[in-house]
Design a protein that fits this description.
The chain has 358 residues and is of the alpha+beta class. The chain has 3 domains: 51-84 and 281-351, conserved putative lor/sdh protein from methanococcus maripaludis s2 fold; 90-97 and 199-279, Beta Barrel (Elongation Factor Tu (Ef-tu), domain 3), CATH 2.40.30; 100-193. Helix content is 37%, strand content 30%. Strands 5-6-9-8-7-10 form a 6-stranded antiparallel barrel. A 4-stranded antiparallel beta sheet has the order 3-13-12-11, with helices on one face. Strands 1-2 form a two-stranded antiparallel ribbon. The longest helix is centred in the middle third of the chain and has 44 residues, at 143-186.
Length: 358
């Protein structure tokens, strides 16, 4: 038994020595391998064509297509034109029903007629009273006739005062509902505005600003459009401040006039309010250049003779058949306005992972 123990000691030492040799010949960790010592893989991986995030913006690898492939794909490009736009904030409004304004105008005109009749009757009564008073002093007529003339004069004076008071009441009601400027234009006077509202060439618009926001300037012009239809925008001209606020915003309210094309009474509106006289500089991107992918708008921009790069479109503003964009694009760059969907399909095909046969 003692002899067996003595034999096991040399065998254990030999085993430990062999393990040490094997451990020293094992390859080092990846962090310690020098690039020049790395072996070549039997199949090289495809070049990366996905996205990188540089300075917070998505950057895509350039997609290259031969001139023949571009022709067959129907690619068309257009140089981006420079444009400018003032910094604006969004507000909301509606097309007003002018029937209450017409009713006030009708009542005001009726009160004016009543006053004119009362004034005419008062003039006649005063002349008659003065004539009879002279005759009474000369004892030509009886006192009874003079008393009747005085009663008629007092009655006509009361009617004249009532008609004048009625006009004041209608005017005060108009001031409370529509403000002094609009009341003067549409209720008390024959104005261009009133005629345009009657023939529906213009509509009256009420714009409610967000709380703690004001209009800048006196002759202020804004842009309005039916809610959610920015492509149908048109200018609106300031008329006057509105005397009442909107419960939903609790901000300033203003009356504007605008072309009535496509607008109906009660229609909800979006309004863009310029915040300063300094205009933002940018480019106009044609709608035909916009490619939608994963719920976002993109534009392919030409890079060199046969390269195309996809760029995201950030904050934008519709201007007819174009989008105004202040960042991400430069004036004169060639944007793909035809064949953009084909480029997107080609990019997705090339980015698709390839199966490894090995």
């Amino acid at each position: 038994m003692r002899k067996a123990r003595l034999l096991s000691i040399p065998l254990l030492s030999l085993a430990l020595l062999a393990l040490s040799v094997v451990w020293q010949n094992l390859p080092a960790d990846d962090d310690d391998i020098h690039p020049s010592a790395s072996s070549q893989a039997p199949h090289s991986l495809p070049a990366k064509t996905g996205t990188d995030n540089v300075d917070g913006q998505l950057r895509f690898a350039t997609l290259k297509l031969s001139a023949e492939r571009q022709r067959l794909g129907g690619l068309k490009t257009k140089a981006l034109a420079a444009a400018s736009m003032r910094v604006e904030s969004l507000a909301y409004g509606r097309v007003l029903d002018i029937r209450p304004l017409l009713e006030l105008r009708s009542r005001y005109r009726s009160a004016q007629s009543e006053l004119a009749i009362a004034l005419a009757a008062l003039r006649v009564a005063r002349k008659n009273h003065d004539r009879l008073e002279t005759l009474h002093r000369e004892s030509i007529i009886a006192t009874r006739d003079l008393i009747q003339a005085e009663s008629q004069l007092a009655a006509d004076q009361a009617r004249q005062e009532a008609a004048s008071r009625h006009i004041r009441e209608v005017r005060e009601e108009a001031l409370q509902s529509w403000g002094g400027i609009l009341s003067g234009l549409a209720v008390e006077a024959e104005s261009r505005l009133f005629q345009s509202l009657l023939d529906r060439s213009l509509v009256l618009v009420l714009i409610a600003l967000p709380a703690r926001q004001s209009l800048h300037g006196v002759n202020h012009a804004i842009t309005i459009a039916p809610s959610g239809e920015q492509g149908k925008s048109r200018p609106a001209r300031l008329l006057a401040p509105a005397p009442k606020t909107e419960e939903s915003t609790q901000g300033e309210t203003w009356f504007f006039e605008a072309n009535s094309t496509g607008l109906r009474t009660g229609m909800r509106l979006d309004a863009w309010i310029p915040q300063s006289d300094i205009a933002a500089q940018g480019v106009l991107i044609p709608l035909s250049a916009i490619v939608w992918h994963e719920g976002r708008p993109w534009v392919f921009v030409k890079s060199g003779g046969d390269g195309f790069v996809r760029r995201p479109v950030g904050v934008h503003r519709e201007q007819g058949e174009n989008w105004f964009v202040a960042e991400g694009f430069a004036t004169g760059e060639e944007a793909v306005v035809g064949g953009g969907q084909m480029l997107l399909s080609e990019e997705q095909r090339r980015n698709a992972p390839k199966s490894d046969d090995d």
